[in-house]
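Reviewers of the previous submission asked for a worked example of the structure-prediction workflow described in the proposal, so we include one complete record here. The input consisted solely of the amino acid sequence. No template or homolog information was supplied to the procedure at any stage.
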Amino acid sequence: MPSYSLFFTILIPIALALGVKYKSPGFATVIATGLTLEAVGYIGRLLLRNNQNNPFYFAVFLTGTTLGPTCICGAMFSIVPRIVAIYGEEYRSWRPIWYLLLLSALTIASLALELAGSVVSTTQEAPTVVEAGIRLLVVGLAIQLVALAIFALHATLFTITLRTRQHKLDPKFAPVYTSTLFKISLAAFIVATALILLRTIFRTIQIVEGFQSSIAQAETHFLLLDGVVMLITSVLFLACFPARALGEYWPDTSVRRPSPKPLQLTHQTPGQLPVTRPSPTYSAIGMKSPMSTYSPGKAGYWASPSLVENDVLW
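From that input alone, the workflow returned the following structure tokens.
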């Protein structure tokens, strides 16, 4: 038990240092806030073992271990628009600004309800008030599940679009989308998403069953499906730090309103053949031939810009 709070505490300065080094203080601060809440929550659980009837320790434990993962989820939601920007706005399934606003609103609502529910259910004695606090907490966790579902759906649609639509990748970001580090970061990101989703489902079931239920009292289940899962998720985020994978292009991938003008391609010179590639690769030829248009999912196909118009996208 003490090791959990110790491990989360060790990760806090690492997250902040990475934020400074890779010029992403906002993202790193949100991650560090989640790690801090996790560390405080496990300290509360440790104190609760020797003082089981202390409502303050229980409130600290419940609040920290509930709000910490929600903060980390909020940081995770901000990454997909940057990944979309790397491959190009033509591959988006939803305008990034609306996607980010929706998930931010859901995350804030989830945090507020989880905080209120945790405090009310642990500091009040009247059964009806405690029950109301538990319902608030369940609603907060349910909203977090909805946000995760939207996030997973958006990421899935983007993956499908990336493999089916035919568009030119921006050669400006070629050093990113062709790098091994970026691909490893994407794989780590997928694993972290699955782990957070698993943890949130478990925690929702646990709270619905009640604090005195067998699943709530099963310490081993909690430590594995909450503590270990969030620890692995946090390590994955820091080991494959998104701002490190994007490098100097991190500021260039911030969410902006897309230009209403469609992409204008320059005319080919007579006799010049379009360059095709089987995957999003980069070379000097691609820089010299702006007419080359290809898809990460299909090789040898050149698409006219009239095939897909920006205005028909969501």
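Residues 257-295, 297-314 have pLDDT under 50 and may be disordered. We consider this example representative of the routine output the project will generate in years two and three.
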